Amino acid sequence: MDKSIWHLRNCELFQTLSEGWIRRLESRSRMATFHAKSPIRLPEDSSNYLYLILNGMVRLSHITVDGKESILAFVGPGEVFGEGAVIDGSEVEEHVMSIEKTSIMMIPASEVTELLNENSGLAFSLTKLVGLRRHRIERRIKNLLFVSIRERLIHLLLDLAEQFGTQTENGVLLKIRLVHLDIANLIGITRESVTILLGQLRQEGKLEIERHKIIIKDIRGLAKSVNRTPVRTEIKQAFPFSLNPAIA
């Protein structure tokens, strides 16, 4: 089986498609690979594609008028971005940057739109994906206004555990490469505050940070501390990660 067809079949969004549609999407899509820290898409770019990440990781963000970055989301293997081109044909608004070496399948939006008209299940899955990502962003915005910086960090750790966590014998490992500045840009605090707060959580036994990895030791307790329903602690990924998780 061609690798691109395998990737499509193992993407949750496309798992229910017929063999004919899988091969049609594969034959009309483009493959691209980007080095770490490479721009993939800028706000001024026009885009007629839905992007499927095969391996690696990308960051979606806005750049403010004073040049500061506001990170919106991270997207990993088996996930898509650029859904605006499919849903409403909206223009690109985010900066998209690869965090590490990343391979992407670029699927023509017109093909996906035609497919959506024929497959209600796919339409529901895409809507659910967009809704979940928007919910995370909206929750982060509310947190900026109404909760303490410690609570913001805890909510972020829980979000990352839900999206990129995997259960280990020591707790939930966050399999994503983040430096302190990334975390600061996600929750609107300084890098120094991130360092202090992570240190506090580590001293309290809630986190384990060693060998450039973050492990949440007690995810239920962490969720309870911010009155949040415990997140799933075991995430099944369609593709193996090639990340070197880092905190610096």
TrEMBL record:
Print the keywords alphabetically: DNA-binding, Transcription, Transcription regulation
List the InterPro entries hit by this protein, alphabetically: cNMP-bd_dom, cNMP-bd_dom_sf, Env_Response_Regulators, HTH_CRP, RmlC-like_jellyroll, WH-like_DNA-bd_sf, WH_DNA-bd_sf
Q: What is this protein called?
A: Global nitrogen regulator
What positions does the domain HTH crp-type occupy? 147-220
Q: What gene name is given for the protein in this entry?
A: ntcA_1
Annotated SUPFAM superfamilies? cAMP-binding domain-like (SSF51206), Winged helix' DNA-binding domain (SSF46785)
Q: Which GO terms describe its molecular function?
A: DNA binding; DNA-binding transcription factor activity
Q: Which domain of life is it from?
A: Bacteria
Species this protein is from: Gimesia panareensis
* Start and end residues of each Cyclic nucleotide-binding domain: 13-116
Q: Which PANTHER family match?
A: CRP FAMILY TRANSCRIPTIONAL REGULATORY PROTEIN (PTHR24567), HTH-TYPE TRANSCRIPTIONAL REGULATOR ARCR (PTHR24567:SF74)
Record SMART domains = cNMP, HTH_CRP
- Which Pfam families does this one have? cNMP_binding, HTH_Crp_2
A single Gene Ontology CC term: cytosol
Q: Which PROSITE patterns match?
A: CNMP_BINDING_3, HTH_CRP_2
